[in-house]
C-alpha cells in the first residue's frame, strides 16, 4: 500500500470527532492532517479548541494538539488539503447534507457519522461485516454527482449496532418478527455526567428520532442493490423502543424474535460463533478478530464489563432462551462511540481503501 492517506476531520472538536482523533493518531493507513470545526473554533490550535471540553479518557494526542482548526464552511479550500474526510458535524440535517455533498463534488470522499444521507438512495450505509456489497452504489452515486473520485459513504445509527449483527448472522434462518428495546448510553447524545447531571439516577424513555431510525435502517442494510439504489428488505418486521439510561458508554438491547420456521437453540449459537465478515477476511486494521461473542453466563453481557470487547469493535450477546410469545429472546451489547460511531467509520474507510475506492490525490 502506498503512502498514508491525508485525512481531514470535519466536526473534529465534538465527542465523535475527538474519538476519531484518538483512533487515527497512529493508524497504519491514514494520517490526520486537517481538523475543521465551526467558525468560533477556527484559528485556534486543536488543544485550545477542546481544552475545556475534552471528553475522552485518553489524553489528547500530543502530535495532533498543535493542528490549527480550520473553518468547516470553507469546503473547497479544505478539500484541497486532504484525500478524504470524516464528517461528524453538529449542524441541522439539511446543512450537513449540503456540506457532505459539497466535499464529494470537490472530489473528496466523505465517510459520514451523521444521519443526513443515511436514506439517500445511492449512498451506501455500511456495517462492513454485513453489507459490503453495497459499495457498488458508489459508481452510481458518482454518476449523479458528476465526480470521478468524490462520493459519500455513511455509517448507520448507533442504536442498531447491538441487535442487527446477531440478527444478520441468522438471516438464512428467516427471522420474521423482531421487537428490540435499546438502553442507550449518554455518550450517544454527546454528553458526559459532568455536563448532563440530570441523567444521574435517571432514565428517559424517549430519544428523538431513534425508534424510527432503528426500525427502517436495518431494512436498508439488508436490502439489495438494484438500478443504482437499494431495494429495501421487507423482513423482518421490526418494532423498537429506545431509552436513555445513566451509563457512560455502551448501548444494550433486549431482543425478541420469531422465525419463519423455528430453529433449534444450538443452530443459533453456532451461527453466532462462526460468523465472519469481509473485514475479518481482509484482516483490516480495526476489524475485530471475533465479530460476535456469546456469553454462557446468565448475567452477561454487562455494559461496564463487556462494551470494550475487541477494542470496542465486537458485539457481545447473551441470555438466549425460548420465549412464550416469540420463538426466542436474547440480550446484545455494542460500544456506541466505537463500533457505533467513530470506530465504525474508520472500519468503513479501511474497507473502502482495501477495495480500491480511496486513493491519494495526485
From TrEMBL:
Keywords: NADP, Oxidoreductase. InterPro entries: ASADH-related (IPR051823), Asp_semi-ald_DH_pep-lack (IPR005676), NAD(P)-bd_dom_sf (IPR036291), Semialdehyde_DH_NAD-bd (IPR000534), Semialdhyde_DH_dimer_dom (IPR012280). One of its GO terms (biological process) is threonine biosynthetic process. It comes from the Bacteria. Pfam families: Semialdhyde_dh, Semialdhyde_dhC. Residues 6-138 form the Semialdehyde dehydrogenase NAD-binding domain. The keyword Translocase does not apply. GO terms for molecular function: aspartate-semialdehyde dehydrogenase activity; NAD binding; NADP binding; protein dimerization activity. Belongs to the aspartate-semialdehyde dehydrogenase family. This is Aspartate semialdehyde dehydrogenase. It comes from Hydrogenispora ethanolica.
Amino acid at each position: 500500500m502506498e503512502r498514508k492517506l491525508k485525512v481531514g476531520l470535519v466536526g473534529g472538536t465534538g465527542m465523535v470527532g475527538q474519538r476519531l482523533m484518538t483512533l487515527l493518531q497512529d493508524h497504519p493507513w491514514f494520517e490526520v492532517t486537517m481538523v475543521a470545526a465551526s467558525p468560533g473554533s477556527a484559528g485556534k490550535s486543536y488543544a485550545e479548541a477542546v481544552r475545556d471540553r475534552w471528553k475522552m479518557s485518553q489524553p489528547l494526542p500530543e502530535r495532533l494538539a498543535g493542528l490549527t482548526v480550520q473553518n468547516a464552511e470553507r469546503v473547497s479550500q479544505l478539500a484541497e488539503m486532504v484525500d478524504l474526510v470524516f464528517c461528524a458535524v453538529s449542524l441541522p440535517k439539511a446543512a450537513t447534507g449540503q456540506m457532505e455533498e459539497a466535499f464529494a463534488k470537490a472530489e473528496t470522499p466523505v465517510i459520514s457519522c451523521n444521519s443526513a444521507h443515511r436514506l439517500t438512495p445511492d449512498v451506501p450505509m455500511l456495517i462492513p461485516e454485513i453489507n459490503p456489497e453495497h459499495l457498488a452504489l458508489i459508481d452510481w452515486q458518482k454518476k449523479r454527482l458528476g465526480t470521478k473520485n468524490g462520493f459519500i459513504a455513511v455509517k448507520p445509527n448507533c442504536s442498531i449496532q447491538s441487535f442487527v449483527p446477531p440478527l444478520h448472522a441468522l438471516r438464512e434462518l428467516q427471522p420474521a418478527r423482531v421487537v428490540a428495546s435499546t438502553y442507550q448510553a449518554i455518550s450517544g447524545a454527546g454528553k458526559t455526567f459532568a455536563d448532563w447531571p440530570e441523567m444521574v439516577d435517571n432514565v428517559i424513555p424517549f430519544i428523538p428520532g431513534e425508534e424510527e431510525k432503528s426500525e427502517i435502517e436495518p431494512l436498508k442494510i439488508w436490502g439489495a442493490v438494484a438500478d443504482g439504489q437499494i431495494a429495501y428488505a421487507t423482513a423482518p418486521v421490526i418494532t423498537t423502543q429506545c431509552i436513555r439510561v445513566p451509563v457512560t458508554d455502551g448501548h444494550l438491547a433486549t431482543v425478541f424474535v420469531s422465525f419463519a420456521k423455528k430453529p433449534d437453540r444450538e443452530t443459533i449459537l453456532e451461527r453466532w460463533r462462526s460468523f465472519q465478515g469481509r473485514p475479518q477476511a481482509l484482516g483490516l486494521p480495526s476489524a475485530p478478530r471475533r465479530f460476535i461473542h456469546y456469553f454462557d453466563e446468565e448475567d452477561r453481557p454487562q455494559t461496564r464489563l463487556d462494551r470494550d470487547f475487541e477494542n470496542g469493535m465486537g458485539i457481545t450477546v447473551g441470555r438466549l432462551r425460548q420465549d412464550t410469545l416469540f420463538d426466542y429472546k436474547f440480550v446484545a451489547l455494542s460500544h456506541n462511540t466505537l463500533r457505533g460511531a467513530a470506530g465504525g467509520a474508520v472500519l468503513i474507510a479501511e474497507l473502502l481503501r482495501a477495495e480500491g475506492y480511496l486513493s491519494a490525490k495526485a
